[in-house]
């Protein structure tokens, strides 16, 4: 680069579908980042639940460096050892029998939805194509996935949406009973809604969906793009509920920051994705697969998963302490290190106003809709960083309350 890029370059050269903060981070280590001016930040955002081991974790750096000096990409005309090792590990550690590798959560969900419809088409008939999803759900930004997602704002303005998609109410089993029938091919659900406000599913809801799918010979799809790979304190959230899906999607934390996605399914369903029915140019890329394998092996260790649950308690305790002082939150919820704090009625819709104040105080956070402050930090964030980050967050919230 002949000159140092600035935030103004984003407005000049980038399509305006994002509105990034003014600071440009240039270096990261663990749960801390430094920007172009050398300012330090504690990272409670985690790349939106992506940087599962923080920044530049040696396990991932070593895996990437080793693979980078060996083999990068082949195409799906061939297979490669890292992809096969990753697929085997995912099968051995989950309900799945088969794995499809891709490059993102949107791709994984697109593949899951296409597989469900193809399976129903091949085994029952083309009339069995209805997909049931839920209001406020989020499943990606492809046209199919935004149509299945329960937030119309993401599909408006792009023309007619695909047909055969209906939406029930999350955690309301009665609303699903009115929608599912023998023409339903799949029910797609997040075990905990992420973009919809960090709302965990109830045990009764997920078990009820499983029972309804079984009764109507429909497939149950769990979107674990955000909840998977240790985020809730289990390798995948479905394990905490004891409810097994037919298809599961994974991405975000799967690569610890390297783009990778996966769709997991069973021997009963997988044959519908026969040769030529679907594909991904970079899916099963050797670099991505090597990093994802290292990530899932490290995160899957019992002490790491137990640490996630312990850190959840710390986040909740700190947020409750802040709330006792400032009264800005109505409810604190979530599982593991996916934590949401819903704003109190007098601060309705103002979660986004905390973010720039937090940046100025040296801590990065997220929102989940306009009314929920969201945190999705590294699964191994040091407890000292949690304490320091919460001090900084409290200063930002105090400024919000004071009207600054």
Automatic annotation (TrEMBL):
Query: Mind listing the UniProt keywords for this protein, alphabetically?
Result: Amino-acid biosynthesis, Aminotransferase, Arginine biosynthesis, Cytoplasm, Pyridoxal phosphate, Transferase
Residue intervals passing through the bilayer: none
Write down the required cofactor(s). Answer: pyridoxal 5'-phosphate
Q: Which GO terms describe its biological process?
A: L-arginine biosynthetic process
Q: Name one GO molecular function term.
A: N2-acetyl-L-ornithine:2-oxoglutarate 5-aminotransferase activity
Family listed: Belongs to the class-III pyridoxal-phosphate-dependent aminotransferase family. ArgD subfamily.
Q: What is this protein called?
A: Acetylornithine aminotransferase
- Organism equals Billgrantia endophytica
State the organism's lineage: Bacteria, Pseudomonadati, Pseudomonadota, Gammaproteobacteria, Oceanospirillales
